[in-house]
Amino acid sequence: MALLDVEDLSVTFQRRGQRTVHAVDGVSFSVDAGEVVALVGESGCGKSVTSLALMGLLPRRGAKVGGSANFDGTDLLAQDQRSMRDIRGRDVAMIFQDPLSSLNPVIPVGIQVTEVLVRHRGMSGDAARKEAAELLDRVGIPDPRRRLKEYPHQLSGGMRQRALIAIAVACRPRLLIADEPTTALDVTIQAQILELLKELVRDSNTALIMITHDLGVVAGMCDTINVLYAGRVVESAQRRELFAAPRHPYTVGLLRSIPRLDAGRGEKLTPIPGSVRDVLPWVEGCAFAPRCNRRIDACVGAPPAMVPTHTGHSYRCVNPVPVEEKQ
Amino acid sequence: MFRFIVRRLLLLIPTLFGLSILLFIWLHRLPGGPETAILGERGTPEMRAQIRRNLGLDEPLLIQYGRFMKRLLQFDLGTSISTKREVTTEFLQRFPGTVELTITAMVIAIGIGIPLGYLAARRNGSILDYASVGGSLLGTCIPIFFLAYVLKAIFAESLGWFPAIGRQDSSINATHPTNFFVLDGLMTREWDAAADAIWHLILPGLALASIPLAIIVRITRASVLEVLGEDFVRTAEAKGLTERVVRRRHVLRNAMLPVATSIGLLTGLLLSGAVLTETVFGFSGIGLFLYEAISNRDYPVLQGFILLIAVIFTLVNLAVDVSYSLIDPRVRVR
């Protein structure tokens, strides 16, 4: 049994006078302890909403969450506000995309680290400060005692993200959700942060959900990959399998749009035509059909089902890319 | 920080110098003069000229200005033409009233405005929210003298809960070492005098608070709404912090930045005197006195009071800048 089992998660946003938006539409995946699972997709595919739903951080008004998320016996989606506050930061923690705006600008970094220790580990005063300094040291921030007294704007971008990671791992959570943790950083820092995350996960046997649009990030560290499109998982596979033999045309499109060092000189990147806005509602067929170059008549009419294969690889497509074509 | 304050204080000198020149030109350009106020319509040209000569107003403007500056450097603002008392004395006697009134009004405006604005933002779209936005619009629209008269008619004249006029009941024979009546009462341990002075402050304070209150409600509401959508509030929630900590440490503190600025500006504004409120409640502060000084063309009073108000306005703004840098570490002053 996995540490986290997300079953048929759906999130709909309803605003008075506007039509209902299905941001997440029946997403299922599971994460084991020590496993790194990726949710990959373009912006707007529902990956961030998925993570906020698991954290119970969606706006209370207007968002409706369905399905279940069984976390070691408790359904995260069925908890009330109060018990979610106990779980958040202690058992499940999150790292956000933009480290500058995610830290409170008018409070020293130290307090932002210690407050979570005070809240969940019952620490106080010196003990909390000592632990905070150790945490900063562990995430690779030099001279942690001095940094604790500084404000976020006095830290570099990489330092801020390290501080946010320190906050997230402060209570040794069993599940960590990282929402585009490297998007706002420059490339060399990105690599360092990913390395740090990998290390932390390996050392503490923490499960990590990595939310990203960057297949490069995925290739470097994830065990299992779920590709999302328009609020549904369209392909799910082990990393090797997915990169070697992608079956869903959308996944293939994503892979083709990454620049490669081994590509021939002058070879152009292949973008996926259209934008995420050109979707078909899933009930009317495959949402990717309007942008798909392998579209056939069967794509429209009924929603495609997930097709499992014997290797644990599954895809939601009626006309999948043949395995040979990629070679 | 220290250098910042010193530099700002030094900047006061050229500011006041420029202001004094502008003031001098403007005042002496006003039609009529103190002689009209003293003699009325009936004075003969000879009598008028005599008075002007006595007051030194017949000399060229430049010489008058030179004389004014010379006295100013000795901290002497001259003597009022209408009351024959020193301008500094008049100021020290009246300004405390204005300060007390300003403090009362700002305590009311801040004490109600910030919590109300905060609640309106937390319950965005609720009846409370609409009521506070609508109420604050009304607050800025109602003319202050009208509100003052209504308050006086209802609470002083009909119900008799509050005194209608003055700073203290004349039957109380209190001593006034500082002219801050409330402070005087506390210092001399004349508790009834202090209580009576506070009692006299409530209605004019309420009337004067209406506009600052409306402004503070709106700014607080807008600011809290903005901060609630910030990423760091989501981070705080993701840490599982209690609602109280999220609210106080993360939301309110950040939301107070723009509110602090407007509180400073409003305080400076109220300290320059509230003519309408003081008139309705017969409250002796600088507003009423300034108003009379304008009609009497009491040049020394006008010059002296306006310069002193400018100094105070600048000091209040300096205090706001300093406090701002204390709330927001990103604005460390150098």
From TrEMBL, chain A:
It is found in: Cell membrane. It is a peripheral membrane protein. GO terms for molecular function: ATP binding. Keywords: ATP-binding, Cell membrane, Membrane, Nucleotide-binding, Transport. Its main location: membrane. Residues 4-255 form the ABC transporter domain. It comes from the Bacteria. Belongs to the ABC transporter superfamily. This is Dipeptide/oligopeptide/nickel ABC transporter ATP-binding protein.
TrEMBL record, chain B:
It is found in: Cell membrane. The keyword Transport applies. Keywords: Cell membrane, Membrane, Transmembrane, Transmembrane helix, Transport. Gene3D superfamilies: MetI-like. Residues 95-324 form the ABC transmembrane type-1 domain. It is a multi-pass membrane protein. The keyword Membrane applies. It comes from the Bacteria. The chain crosses the membrane at residues 9-27, 101-120, 127-151, 197-217, 257-290, 302-327. Pfam families: BPD_transp_1, BPD_transp_1_N. Belongs to the binding-protein-dependent transport system permease family. This is Peptide ABC transporter permease. The lineage of its organism: Bacteria, Bacillati, Actinomycetota, Actinomycetes, Micromonosporales.
